[in-house]
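Tutorial, part two.
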Amino acid sequence: MTSAPERHMIRLDRKPQLFSMRVAALIFHDNYLLVQRGAKDSYWALPGGRAEIGESSEQTIIREIGEELDRDCVVERLLWSAENFFAYDDYAAHELAFYYLVSLRQPLPFHEIDIVHRVLDGVEVEFRWLPAQPSALLEHDLRPRFIAERIEMLPQRHEHLIVREGRSGAAELSKEIS
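Running the prediction step on this input gives:
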């Protein structure tokens, strides 16, 4: 009997530099967007996680939604790929990211202001719904910021972005459409 191959997340830690490959989902419910954060974090992000070696970005988001939300999902389409450059703790971070429009086969509980789901994933991660409006997402510090700025006009075709966010949260953005 052979054992399953060891799993390796795509993350290179060479302090003060950090590289990772992350895949995230935009999941909507009645003009609300599902977001997540570490229970001790002050900012929110989209549900998802790091890709594993040998796994496509689409396989990653399906696995992550299953692990974190205990739900099957349908991947609708790739919205953005992004090269994100930002400060994270003591790191100069470089992240290759893929953002998919995703729908859940079984709905997640909905509440306008409360946490609707929690999971332990090394740390406690909490999930809630935020209004899918730029002002609400910026007010709750959704990262990366470009998601909030583009939430009302999702691209019909994949866009590739290069995002450089400074410590002040200001972003420099360049775009390529494929």
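The mean pLDDT is 93. In part three we will examine how such features are distributed along the chain.
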